[in-house]
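Moderator note: this is an archived Q&A kept for reference. The question asked for a predicted structure of one protein chain; the sequence and the answer are reproduced below.
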Amino acid sequence: MATLAAVASRAQGRETRERLIQAATKSFIQFGYEPTSLNAVAKAAGVTRQALLHYFPSKSELLAAVLDQAERDFREHGWESETANVGFAEGLVAILERNRQEAGLSSLYAVAVVAGVHEGGALHDFVRERERRVHRDMKAAVEHEQAAGRLRTDMDADTLATALRAVFNGLVIHGLLEPDANVSAPLADVLRALTP
């Protein structure tokens, strides 16, 4: 049985970890991933660099934790609230708009993807697992829409999910590079073209 001190220590550890993730999120978005030092994150969280390294041995592991937390928040409060009472197409457009409004997080994910491409890199497993999960979710949504007659069935669900993700991700990048560009309209047009 855990002692009261051990329970308190674990709770304090969770609180410190959450504080570090919050400080890193704010710093990475405000100043950029590369320019932000671990010392700056530690200072913003009110801990020493050594304490930060206890929880996150590298900056890339801290970035993975920031993105993991952002995705958990989105899954908890995002997709359902963004797509409540709207269809698949409208939901994807709403999510694209949300990504545009949260350009800081989108740009951090782009950094992670570039770093994660390299086999064995600290972000590789995180990015690969997230991409696989997103693809499974998209494929399931496409299958549901095809079964309901709301998406073309002359392409298999896996191919269509891959194509939609490519369009979506490309528009996210385009929106980061051209903040004034209308990225929602092209996605809506593609989705209309895929409607029987």
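Archived answer notes: The first helix runs from residue 4 to 31.
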